[in-house]
Design brief:
It is found in: Cell membrane. It is a multi-pass membrane protein. This is Arginine/agmatine antiporter. The chain is an all-alpha fold. The protein contains 15 helices and two strands. Strands 1-2 form a two-stranded antiparallel sheet. Helix 1 (16-27) runs parallel beside helix 10 (221-250) and helix 6 (89-118) runs antiparallel to helix 13. The longest helix is centred in the middle third of the chain and has 44 residues, at 260-303. The two termini are 34 Å apart.
Length: 431
Amino acid sequence: MSTLPAGAEPRRTVGPFQLLALGVNGIVGVGIFFAPAEVAAQAPGMGAVWAFAVTGLALVPVALAFAVLGRRFDADGGPVVFARAAFGERASFLVGWVAYVSAFLSASAVNAGLARALAPSLGLAGPVGERFLATALVTALVALVATGMRVSARTWTALTVLKLVPLVALLGAFFFLPSAGELPAPLPATGGSWLKAGLAVMFAFQGFEIVPVIAGQVRSPERTVPLATVGSLLVAMLLYVGLTWACVAALPGLAQATAPLVQAAGVWGGQGLERFVNAGTSVSALGICLGTLVTTPRYLSTLASGERSLFGLERMTPSGVPMRALFVTWVLVIGFVNMGDLSELFALSAIAVLMQFGVTAAALAVLSLRRERNLKPAHALLAVPTLVLGLTLVAFGASAREAAVASLAVLVGFALMQLSRPRVPAPGPQP
């Protein structure tokens, strides 16, 4: 497949609604189908609802920080290009590499989990069948992504709508039933439980940060990227608060529920709604699988697009696909989904998100104080809550194992930097 000449840009095919759908798809994954029980164990009763509401509001300044910078950088990469502008190539390369490692590990785990859930119904039960199905699933999704951003955007938008339909149906059944207002009295949650509940909620809200990663494919990114970044968080916050409320009202023993949304659907809408919401779990997982395979290669292509080139990974097709980076991602994900138990592959998630939050906040502060990109010093104030939340996430949400995996990823990143070569300027007209 042909690639664009140096300096040329692909056609921008992603519109506002499609970018908003990407952000919502990134946040509303499989986790919300189980998160209310985990949060309720730390913040019982209506405390779980308040945990989702307060944490969502606390993340709004973080989304605004991404939005403020996202509107000023119309290239792919998000935090990678933010770091390049503020701190130079070395920092940008390492941020991009750690984000990429975390993303392809997460993509491997989600694809393997979906294959494990679907395999029995397809007659492929057992490790061999599950791995075969995971390999086929990843290959099919990568083939779809390779066709171009236009097809990918339409597909992730359709999957986002499909995953939201059963969740909205659950909310409708809850709010329009006469007994919906008969809620249990709020139970207290004291001490460290609120912090643990907030951390669980914070992980459930992750995903809006991927919106600027495809900014180079978006029409009118100066308007679309900020709206989709903040809008996806607000949509998810309203949805999560309502869903958790429905679970609290339906399930007195919510903390012990194994599938809280599905069980709450059975209470409010019977077996039909229960089956509908249960099917939504697989659709939601499929949407996440596609979203990760669209965005993950762009971390790799962006870290290779600066002053130093790395194996031509930055090359883009006219349809907006970093084909070499996509191929490398396909090989890595296929390798990991065939390794067996992938429950540990999320080990870099907390630190990778912290790095993206922290680098974005620091870049916003530095560029604001320099008054670059039409930023003013007042914009630097948004960096403060972002840094506080990021440090809280890593201090209380990251483990020693995650730190070890992150350190190993950084060392590999340094080795890759040694393999990169200074970019040769494109030949220009002779004087």
